[in-house]
């Protein structure tokens, strides 16, 4: 049946046009109920024993998704009109709902009401789109009631009073969500309900707070979006993302493009109910109210000290197995003093999500029927306390739980939220690790049956068809080997180096041919695209792809034939590239070496076997390539990558120390970088508008200011006019202390920008620059087992060689940009999760091992300084005045010389000075253990 739908729209030229679209209606769309006597029940998704089938309206899905995900809510019909409206309004909730609908263990059925001839509703004159959608939902609910003819109860859940009233008048069973949940006799489910904020809630909060403020907390009303938009256009307001200081939650920064600078926001009042990550509108304060950044922490009205210990970020995200070359990484943005200060006047886009933490109990109100009010304290100190209601207070006090934010009224001291679920016992390592994964939005769900169905059966081996493939070269005769961290199972790169008769070398980088198994548009490809990257924690790995691929089928293990994508150069003995070719191949690795094993072979002059000779030749070439790259302006920075020795039985840390870099690490890294550059040049030549590349923006002078100030304080003059100038300056930054140069390089690393993926058609060629590598072009090709970016680049390279057609997604610019944004998001989260895992294991290690150690001062503040502990790779604050105080006047800070001294001149400390400190685990606030650093 054909139904025409028409609507009017305004063109870009301002004309009004009428659009008519054909809408096909069917009568054979089944209802999904196995008790149905009319429809095809072979694909029924609802329970055969269900007494009630739920139909949800759009707002119930949007606001109550945490409840809907609970297994107690099942046998749900999701109407296609609801699914589409949720998709348009909240993509995150839509993805969660889709996951429920595709989960074979849950009884959720999607009914295409918009294409069924009996449930499709035509537009009515004067009816809003929202009213039409509500009417369509009621029509579908009524059809289900008639269609199933009393076999099962159909219940419409809606919190919309008008929609419920009309449903009841039309003979449809309808209830509010709360009413239905109460009927289940599951008081714990009531904790999951989202309650709209009201003035009564705010009054109750002030009564129930165990530690009420001395004065009523009142925030400014947020400006309406129309006024914000106008103000931004006029330059009155400035838009940017709020970043809260992880050392001090009462200090935040908003990066403003309109000012080309960061605006500092001091105090909860000026933050005005904004959360870390919110897109906000900021109004500058008068210049006399601007502050200089001097304190480690600023005291607040609640006297809550929230400082944390920071582990210096890892580096070398282009080759994450080493730390010698951290050009493609970024730590926290360094902040300079005397920046503009402002206050937030409106929220443009909220970044609310679920948070992990524990409860701080509050007084139980009389006659509440077991309902207790409690304050939730997030593990992330940047998040304010959240007020929730719970009926299971006693059971939750010693647990890590998840809480979601619902609202934050301008009269309320705290945001309001609701309990989502319990993670586990506080302090348990598995619980705390799950917290790390949840906080960083890491997908740990098992791979679905649809994804696993995309894998070839095991055992897998190279077939005669693979060898007969005309586009795949047989390179099994080459002496290929891999060099990886100890115990590495997901080996995605291997090397070969063969001396040629003309005195040159044939050098190859062979990368696992993952795209042979991960085909575009399959469930496996969709899953890898969403996950974006594998995540490496101290004690585990969360794979982007299923283990049969990562550890077997694609892993380039020794003595087995594997499919590869190879980049092969002919090089002179001076590492000059004569020619480059790219080919799909079959290889057979002759050795899978660890960095330690490879280094030992190269260092042992008694060994002259072919593999060792190849290693030495490659190392010689790599040194030349590295030297030439540095001469070109590539930065050789440094970072403190921490490594743990883990107990094989308990998985607890036995020892902690800095990761050791060897020539073998640098050798592998050099050829991976060269392969990435060669592939970037190849794909961009063929696909100038849709290549996925990686750029590292040049840091601004403001970002480098803390480094310059520190260098000047110790008599160094760093030239930052270019990466080459900075590299040369860092080479000359030497002192009597052998660790001095590395410390300067670590400080420089922390002031770098973050490298990001982008689509070539979105930027001009000068913006493609990778600053740290001093490379005009760069991409990621060498790790497709663990990075989806490399999978995309493999497809581009294959298409450029005429091996495969380019997938249609490369013709969709917005979708490509969306993929790049997701990759950047997932990559950043993976980095943060890795660092948080290091922090967790550091806490576990020092819990029973209070330790004294040598440290270097890296930043001076008015009430103390930050130190870096080389032995453990740890950075944190050391207080000279009590925590939370801005300074008692006892100490004087010389900003220019980066010194702090007592007013009587008896003691002074300067930047980069060596001090002795004591490291010990303390718990200044319940359930928030910290590594405290004290001056000895």
UniProtKB/TrEMBL annotation:
Protein name per the record: Putative exoribonuclease II
Per UniProt, the enzyme's principal EC class comes to: hydrolase
One GO CC term, this protein: cytoplasmic exosome (RNase complex)
Species the sequence originates in: Rosa chinensis
**What are the EC numbers?**
3.1.13.1
Question: InterPro entries this protein is in?
Answer: Dis3_CSD2, NA-bd_OB-fold, PIN-like_dom_sf, PIN_dom, RNase_II/R, RNase_II/R_CS, RNR_Ribonuclease, Rrp44_CSD1
Ordered alphabetically, the record's keywords are: Exonuclease, Exosome, Hydrolase, Magnesium, Nuclease, Nucleus, RNA-binding, rRNA processing
Residues in RNB domain copies: 472-803
Q: Which family does it belong to?
A: Belongs to the RNR ribonuclease family.
């Amino acid at each position: 049946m054909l139904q025409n739908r028409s609507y009017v729209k305004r063109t870009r030229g301002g004309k009004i046009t009428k659009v008519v679209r054909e809408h096909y209606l069917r009568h054979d769309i089944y209802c999904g109920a196995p008790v149905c006597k009319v429809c095809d029940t072979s694909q029924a998704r609802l329970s055969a024993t269900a007494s009630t089938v739920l139909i949800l309206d759009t707002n119930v899905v949007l606001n109550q998704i945490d409840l809907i995900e609970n297994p107690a809510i099942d046998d749900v019909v999701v109407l296609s009109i609801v699914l589409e409206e949720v998709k348009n309004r909240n993509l995150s909730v839509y993805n969660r709902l889709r996951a429920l609908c595709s989960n074979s263990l849950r009884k959720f059925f999607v009914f295409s009401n918009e294409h069924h001839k009996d449930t499709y509703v035509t537009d009515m004159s004067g009816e809003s789109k929202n009213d039409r959608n509500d009417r369509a939902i009621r029509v579908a609910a009524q059809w289900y009631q008639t269609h199933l003819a009393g076999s099962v109860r159909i219940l419409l859940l809606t919190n919309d009073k008008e929609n419920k009233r009309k449903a009841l008048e039309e003979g449809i069973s309808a209830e509010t969500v709360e009413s239905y949940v109460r009927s289940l006799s599951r008081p714990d489910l009531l904790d999951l309900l989202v309650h709209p904020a009201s003035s009564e809630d705010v009054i109750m909060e002030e009564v129930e707070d165990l530690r009420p403020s001395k004065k009523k907390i009142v925030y400014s009303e947020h400006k309406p979006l129309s006024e914000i938009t106008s103000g931004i256009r006029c330059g009155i307001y400035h838009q940017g993302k709020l970043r809260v200081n992880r050392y001090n939650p009462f200090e935040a920064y908003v990066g403003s493009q309109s000012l080309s600078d960061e605006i500092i926001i001091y105090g909860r009042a000026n933050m005005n109910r904004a959360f870390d990550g919110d897109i906000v509108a900021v109004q500058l304060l008068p210049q006399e109210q601007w502050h200089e950044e001097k304190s480690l922490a600023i005291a607040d009205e609640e006297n809550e000290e929230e400082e944390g210990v920071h582990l210096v970020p890892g580096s070398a995200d282009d080759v994450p197995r080493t730390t010698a070359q951290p050009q493609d990484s970024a730590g926290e943005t360094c902040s300079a003093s005397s920046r503009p200060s402002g206050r937030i006047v409106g929220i443009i886009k909220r970044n609310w999500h679920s948070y992990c933490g524990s409860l701080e109990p509050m007084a139980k109100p009389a006659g509440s029927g077991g309902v207790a009010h409690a304050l939730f304290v997030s593990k992330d100190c940047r998040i304010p306390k959240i007020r929730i209601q719970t009926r299971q207070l006693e059971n939750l006090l010693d647990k890590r739980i998840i809480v979601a934010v619902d609202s934050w009224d301008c009269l309320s001291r705290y945001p309001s939220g609701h309990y989502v679920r319990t993670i586990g016992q506080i302090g348990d390592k598995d619980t705390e690790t799950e917290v790390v994964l949840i906080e960083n939005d890491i997908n740990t769900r098992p791979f679905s049956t649809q994804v696993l169905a995309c894998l070839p059966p095991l055992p897998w081996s190279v077939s005669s068809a693979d060898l007969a493939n005309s586009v795949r070269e047989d390179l099994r005769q080459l002496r290929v080997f891999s060099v990886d961290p100890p115990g590495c199972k997901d080996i995605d790169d291997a090397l070969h180096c063969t001396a040629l008769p003309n005195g040159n070398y044939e050098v190859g980088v062979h990368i696992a041919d993952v795209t042979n198994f991960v085909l575009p548009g399959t469930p496996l490809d969709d899953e890898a695209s969403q996950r974006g990257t594998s995540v490496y924690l101290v004690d585990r790995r969360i794979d982007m792809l299923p283990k049969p691929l990562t550890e077997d089928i694609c892993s380039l293990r020794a003595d087995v034939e594997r499919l590869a994508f190879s980049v092969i150069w002919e090089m002179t003995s001076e590492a000059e590239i004569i020619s480059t070719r790219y080919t799909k191949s079959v290889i057979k690795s002759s050795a899978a070496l660890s960095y330690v094993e490879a280094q030992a072979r190269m260092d042992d002059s008694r060994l002259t076997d072919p593999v060792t000779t190849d290693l030495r030749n490659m190392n010689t070439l790599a040194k030349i390539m590295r030297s030439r790259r540095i001469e070109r302006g590539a930065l050789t920075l440094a970072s403190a990558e921490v490594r743990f020795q883990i107990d094989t039985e308990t998985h607890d840390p036995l020892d902690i120390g800095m990761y050791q870099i060897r020539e073998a690490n640098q050798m592998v890294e050099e050829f991976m970088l060269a392969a990435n550059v060669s592939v970037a040049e190849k794909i961009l030549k063929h696909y100038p508008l849709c290549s996925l590349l990686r750029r590292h923006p040049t840091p601004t002078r403001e970002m480098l200011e803390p480094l310059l100030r520190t260098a000047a304080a110790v008599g160094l003059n760093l030239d930052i006019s270019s990466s080459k100038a900075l590299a040369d300056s860092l080479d000359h930054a030497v002192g009597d202390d052998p660790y001095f140069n590395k410390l300067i390089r670590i400080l420089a690393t922390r002031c770098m920008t973050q490298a990001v993926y982008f689509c070539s058609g979105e930027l001009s060629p000068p913006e493609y620059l990778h600053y740290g590598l001093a490379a005009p072009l760069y991409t990621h090709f060498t790790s497709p087992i663990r990075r989806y970016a490399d999978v995309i680049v493999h497809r581009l390279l294959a298409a450029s060689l005429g091996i495969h057609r380019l997938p249609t997604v490369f013709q969709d610019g917005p979708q490509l940009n969306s993929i790049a944004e997701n990759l950047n998001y997932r990559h950043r989260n993976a980095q943060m999760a890795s660092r948080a895992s290091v922090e967790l294991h550091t806490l576990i290690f020092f819990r029973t091992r209070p330790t004294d150690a040598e440290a270097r001062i890296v930043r001076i503040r008015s009430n103390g300084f930050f130190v870096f502990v080389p032995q453990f790779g740890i950075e944190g604050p050391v207080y000279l005045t009590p925590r939370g105080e801005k300074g008692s006047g006892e100490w004087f800070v010389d900003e220019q010389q980066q010194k702090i001294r007592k007013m009587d001149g008896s003691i002074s400390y300067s930047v980069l000075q060596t001090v002795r400190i004591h490291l010990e685990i303390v718990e200044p606030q319940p359930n928030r253990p910290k590594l405290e650093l004290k001056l000895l």
